[in-house]
């Protein structure tokens, strides 16, 4: 069965999303600097929350720090703007939102790829083997109300012949892994459904995400090298703790890191 033309398919998908009732406002943009920046501009004026921003192309997509995100056609690029009015009363749980959303993205991918193949790399990446499939950027905002921007890039149906040479062996997409084409529009409703489920659990103070995250942890048992607070640490990864900190055991102690850059693992 053939799919309808792209614009008709997107309109049908957005109608389906709004009929579900969680997303209050949405926009699907052809080209944008980044969906997080588009969300910030919209929130500065007016936007009902949760608000969804999707783009066909990003010209300035980025990940954590100074990392750039290649944003070709076939990559599902979106930002979910979420207010903090339903956030956990325990503010120490707010820092876990990115890990919770990572589980939701892994849940989504597992609808098309065997779940045991989908792994989470601390703090915000999803991998198949040693190839990156998805990444996230979580940013907070404070005006006109406080909340978070959940930026997600998910490789769905990428033409790797057009990819920068250095990325072709480092990344993959759902379609390549299942040897069958799949369009981003088809994946979007499932992704939002999984995000809603996991976010509502987090808002209620639940910890259902934690065991799932540990089960999918790419780095557990691996010898890893990280940079934290200006120094490098080498040791064996022991997963994460319930505060979301990465645990690394070296010859002297167990380091619990709230922030670090993963440099290498084996």
From TrEMBL:
Check the record and name the CDD domains matching this protein. Answer: BPL
Q: What is the lineage of its organism?
A: Bacteria, Pseudomonadati, Planctomycetota, Planctomycetia, Pirellulales
Organism domain of life: Bacteria
BPL/LPL catalytic domain mapped to chain residues: 11-203
Know the name of this protein? Answer: Bifunctional ligase/repressor BirA
Q: Which NCBIfam families match?
A: birA_ligase
Give the enzyme's EC designation.
Answer: 6.3.4.15
Could you list this entry's UniProt keywords, alphabetically sorted.
Answer: Ligase
What Pfam families is this protein classified in? Answer: BPL_LplA_LipB (PF03099)
What's its top-level EC category?
A: ligase
Q: Name one GO molecular function term.
A: biotin--[biotin carboxyl-carrier protein] ligase activity
Q: Which GO terms describe its cellular component?
A: cytoplasm
């Amino acid at each position: 069965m053939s799919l309808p033309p792209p614009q008709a398919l997107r309109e049908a998908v957005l109608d389906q999303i709004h009929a579900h009732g969680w997303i209050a406002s949405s926009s699907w943009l052809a080209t944008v600097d980044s969906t997080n920046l588009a969300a910030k501009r919209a929130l500065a004026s007016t936007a009902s929350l949760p608000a969804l921003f999707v783009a066909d192309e990003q010209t300035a997509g980025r990940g954590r720090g100074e990392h750039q995100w290649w944003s070709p056609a076939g990559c599902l690029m979106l930002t979910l703007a979420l207010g903090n009015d339903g956030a956990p009363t325990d503010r120490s749980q707010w820092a876990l939102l990115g890990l919770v959303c990572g589980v939701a993205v892994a849940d989504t991918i597992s609808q098309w790829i065997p779940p045991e193949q989908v792994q989470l790399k601390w703090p915000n990446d999803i991998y198949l083997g040693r190839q990156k499939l998805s990444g996230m950027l979580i940013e907070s905002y404070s005006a006109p109300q406080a909340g978070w921007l959940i930026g997600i890039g998910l490789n769905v149906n990428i033409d790797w012949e057009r990819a920068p040479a250095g990325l072709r062996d480092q990344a993959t997409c759902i379609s390549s892994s299942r040897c069958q084409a799949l369009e981003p529009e088809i994946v979007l409703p499932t992704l939002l459904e999984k995000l809603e489920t996991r976010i509502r659990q987090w808002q209620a103070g639940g910890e259902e995400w934690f065991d799932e995250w540990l089960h999918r942890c790419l780095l557990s048992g691996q010898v890893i090298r990280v940079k934290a607070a200006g120094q490098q640490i080498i040791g064996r990864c022991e997963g994460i703790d319930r505060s979301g900190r990465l645990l690394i055991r070296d010859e002297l102690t167990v380091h619990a890191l709230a922030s670090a850059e993963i440099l290498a693992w084996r």
